[in-house]
Structure formats: structure tokens, C-alpha cells
Design goal:
The structure is a single chain. The chain has one domain. The protein contains three helices and no strands. It is flat, with a radius of gyration of 15 Å.
């Protein structure tokens, strides 16, 4: 069962990386990076469940905060790029 879950998560990572590389617009790439961040947070939570170690959940929370800040900075960058 766990192999199926990680296989599906890996498929999601593959499609997200494909969109990151091939994305026609900058907004598509931003969404792909945000999707990758969400998937990584899910992977860390799955590892915490498998290992029965709550330290991984703390790591996932910190990563989620940093991913949110990355999204905000990237949105500001894209917003400023359209002004000129």
C-alpha cells in the first residue's frame, strides 16, 4: 500500500516538474513551484507517519512557512515585473 502512495506522489512530482520546465508563462511556473512545495510537505508528513516520529512534523511546519514566504516573494517579483 505504501508503495502505491509513494508512486502516486512521485507521479505528481513528475508532472509538476514538467510544468515547471515547460510552463509557457511565469505564472504557470510559480504554480508548479507552489505545487512542488505542497507535495514535499506531504512527503515529509508521510515519512513522519511511517517512522512514527513527530520531529518530522515540526520540519514540515517550518518548511510550509518558508514555502509560503517563497510564494509571497515570487508573487511580488511577478507583480513588479509587469509595471515596466
Amino acid at each position: 500500500m505504501i508503495y502505491l502512495v509513494f508512486g502516486l506522489v512521485g507521479t505528481g512530482v513528475l508532472f509538476s516538474i514538467l510544468r515547471l520546465i515547460k510552463g509557457p508563462t511565469l505564472a504557470d511556473r510559480a504554480v508548479a513551484v507552489d505545487t512542488l512545495n505542497i507535495i514535499v510537505i506531504g512527503i515529509i508528513a508521510l515519512v513522519a507517519l511511517i517512522e512514527k516520529n513527530s520531529l518530522f512534523l515540526d520540519i514540515a511546519i517550518v518548511y510550509a512557512i518558508l514555502a509560503f514566504l517563497e510564494t509571497v516573494v515570487f508573487a511580488r517579483f511577478v507583480e513588479g515585473k509587469h509595471d515596466s
